[in-house]
Write a structure and sequence with these properties.
This protein is an alpha+beta fold. 60% of the residues lie in helices and 13% in strands.
Length: 705
């Protein structure tokens, strides 16, 4: 009974409806906009209440734009079919949440984003309904629409052939647009992996999510990506739009360099990122309409802000900003055309309907050109930076040469003053100073001089007492001769001599002379040992390949480094019997010195000149190579430092304490010997260097390396 009541009411109101649309054979596609009557109630009503309502308003626009509404909006229209074909109703706005068509018998079909895509009668992004009108039949229909976004109703009545042709054209346009998006994404993603500039990554994210947004608005993401997930479809377009806007802001900040070029604008763009993040949160918690409105308002601010800041930077002469400003101007033009179409100012056609996609594709291309131009700018900046670095390097090289010359003169003066016997040390010092690889020896020269000065001072301090005692002995000899030549009896002579010797304390004088001579001998011997060690270390013939004793080289190196130990660091030596090794002995000694100096530095850093430091030096032979291990219990190194330790100019020492060349020289020297150098280290536990040097030097292999 209720059903028949609905039908009677429906028939009665149909007689009152205005704007009847007559469809003939020659009508392929007809816009219903001005033939629609609209009802926008203040509350949610059902079909029966809509049929009874007398508040329907006649339409006057080709595409009704009902704005935002928390309630359903109702549309009424009457169609008379005078064609030979069946009629299809198309609602070309895929992001409506609910679209429900009621027929005269009270039956309805609900479509929209709330319904899984695969439940639609026609598998197309637009909503398509069968009107089921036979030729000559007239029917009044009610259409209910509801959405968290704006309710825009581009609605047409189509005969099948014209509808499929129009949908094929739309598919072609979207396919071309999607192709442009994929090309831009893949091309710029490849460039990002090549140059590692985050601008390209932000651009890729922006283009990708703009593409998702645009094809999402047209309903293609729902059709192909998540057709059975209507819950996500209701949120997807707003989420994608917010993510693309955040990426656009990040891209703008990085691409235009707003942090330096426009600091205040940079802060405003950062705040906009926060606003879009809030919009994402609103959508996530179910406040879809609030999230959409906030996103829409923020997008307007984004467009104005980005255009303004790009214009400001452009007029300052920035070439990339020109591409950016033109690209966003075109995008804004496309958006304006799209909006004017929605508000009926411009006609609803393929161009106006896809103006955003057309403008977006052009914008992507222009921004890609801007990024390509950025590569040239970065290349020029890199070339300028390299030129500046080269100039600085040459200046540093000049300063180093001057300082080396000064250091050479000072060392020569000091070694000449100490003893001409240290000529070998002076020659070694001159040779090392002339080579940048041996700069570290200059830092040890003062310590070596001190090491030699101790025994020399011991000798010189004994000379005057010895001279005095010898003079007293000579005087005693003269006195005894005078007594022996006197006329006194032998007994008296003997007594006088004994008394004189007792007065002179002759026995003590003899012991003192022996003690002074022994001290002078020990000082001279120690000086000779130091000089011998320095001579072995210096290897004036180091440029010649010769057979050398590695143990002897280590010992001579310890002589050079002895003053750095400060009697606080314990040295453990475990030498094996080694064969003579074909090598550049002087260069190997420098390697040992560099490693030992670093070990002493690490120990001092950990123990702060207190006892407890320990250096262990061991040698071994595996038949083909000799193996030298130098370990310490200093501060150790982390993995990042270990990876860089052999790089030139890398140092963990304070400014002025190291050049960063020591370990690089060591690595190249061992490589020149066709050997291997490895390092093991652990923070706060210590470091161990392992050197493996072939016994026989392979000249061909050395040339290849």
């Amino acid at each position: 009974m209720v059903k028949w009541l609905y039908i009677l009411i429906f028939i009665f109101t149909s007689l009152q409806s205005k704007g009847e649309l007559i469809v003939k054979n020659d009508n392929g596609r007809i816009s219903l906009g001005k033939n629609l009557e609209t009802l926008q109630p203040g509350k949610e009503i059902n079909f029966a209440e809509a049929v009874k309502s007398t508040h329907f308003i006649a339409g006057n626009k080709d595409v009704p734009n009902m704005g935002f509404s928390t309630n359903s909006v109702w549309f009424r229209f009457t169609v008379t079919n005078k064609s030979d074909n069946k009629l299809l109703l198309e609602v070309a706005y895929p992001i409506l949440d609910e679209v429900e068509l009621y027929t005269s018998n009270g039956k309805s079909l609900l479509l929209g984003e709330v319904v899984d895509f695969n439940k639609r009668p026609y598998q197309y992004p637009n909503y398509i309904f069968n009107l089921d009108l036979s030729k000559g039949q007239t029917q009044t229909y009610y259409l209910r629409a509801k959405s968290t976004e704006q309710i825009i109703l581009p609605i047409t009545i189509n005969q099948p052939e014209s509808l499929w042709q129009n949908l094929s054209l739309e598919n072609l346009i979207i396919g071309i647009y999607l192709g442009v998006v994929l090309i831009m994404v893949l091309y710029n993603l490849f460039i990002f992996f090549s140059v590692r500039d985050s601008s390209y990554l932000y651009y890729v994210i922006y283009v990708l999510f703009v593409g998702f947004t645009q094809i999402g608005i047209k309903g293609y993401t729902f059709q192909y990506l998540w057709p059975a997930n209507s819950v996500f479809e209701l949120k997807s377009v707003v989420l994608f739009a917010c993510v693309s806007s955040i990426a656009a802001l990040m891209f703008t900040k990085k691409f235009l360099g707003t942090k330096n070029a426009a600091p205040k604008s940079d802060i405003a763009l950062t705040l906009l990122i926060g606003v879009f993040s809030v919009a994402i949160l609103l959508v996530y918690i179910g406040k879809g309409m609030a999230g959409f409105q906030l996103m829409q308002a923020s997008t307007t601010l984004l467009t104005i802000g980005v255009l303004s800041v790009s214009f400001m930077i452009m007029i300052k002469g920035s070439a990339p900003a020109k591409y950016f400003f033109i690209a966003w101007s075109i995008l804004l033009t496309g958006a304006i055309v799209f909006l004017l179409k929605d508000y009926g100012v411009l006609p609803y056609n393929t161009f106006t309907s896809y103006s955003m996609q057309f403008a977006s594709a052009i914008e992507m291309g222009l921004l890609s050109f801007g990024l390509a131009d950025r590569i040239n700018i970065l290349k020029r900046e890199k070339d300028a930076s390299q030129a500046e670095a080269l100039s600085i390097a040459k200046e540093n090289e000049r300063i180093i040469r001057e300082q080396n010359v000064i250091l050479e003169l000072k060392v020569s003066e000091r070694t000449y003053e100490l003893n001409e016997s240290l000529e070998d040390l002076k020659q070694t010092q001159s040779q090392l100073v002339e080579s940048e690889k041996m700069a570290s020896l200059g830092q040890l020269t003062a310590g070596i001089a001190h090491e030699i000065n101790n025994p020399i001072n011991f000798v010189t301090s004994n000379i005057n007492p010895l001279k005095r005692d010898v003079e007293m002995i000579l005087e005693a000899v003269t006195t005894i001769e005078n007594i022996s030549m006197s006329d006194a009896s032998p007994a008296d002579k003997k007594k006088q001599i004994e008394d004189y010797k007792e007065e002179l304390d002759f026995d003590y004088l003899v012991e003192e002379v022996k003690h002074l001579i022994k001290g002078i001998y020990e000082g001279a011997s120690r000086t000779a040992e130091i000089v011998k060690g320095l001579k072995i270390f210096s290897r004036l013939d180091e440029d010649d390949l010769k057979r050398a004793d590695i143990n002897e080289g280590l010992e001579s190196t310890m002589v050079v480094a002895n003053n750095l130990l400060n009697d606080k660091i314990k040295v453990i030596k475990e030498y094996s019997d080694l064969p003579l090794v074909e090598s550049y002995a002087g260069k190997l000694n420098q390697v040992f010195l560099n490693i030992i100096s670093n070990a002493i530095y690490a120990i001092n850093k950990k123990f702060d000149d207190k006892e407890g430091g320990e250096i262990k030096i061991s040698t071994d032979c595996d038949g083909e190579s000799v193996i030298i291990k130098i370990a310490d219990n200093g501060i150790g190194m982390n993995e990042q430092t270990i990876k860089k330790i052999f790089e030139p100019f890398f140092t963990t020492k304070e400014v002025g304490e190291g050049t960063g060349l020591g370990m690089s020289i060591a690595y190249n020297t061992i490589k020149k010997h066709n050997g291997q150098i490895t390092v093991k280290s652990e923070l706060n536990k210590g470091t161990e260097f392992i050197l493996k040097i072939p016994i026989v030097f392979d000249t061909k292999l050395a040339q290849l390396s």
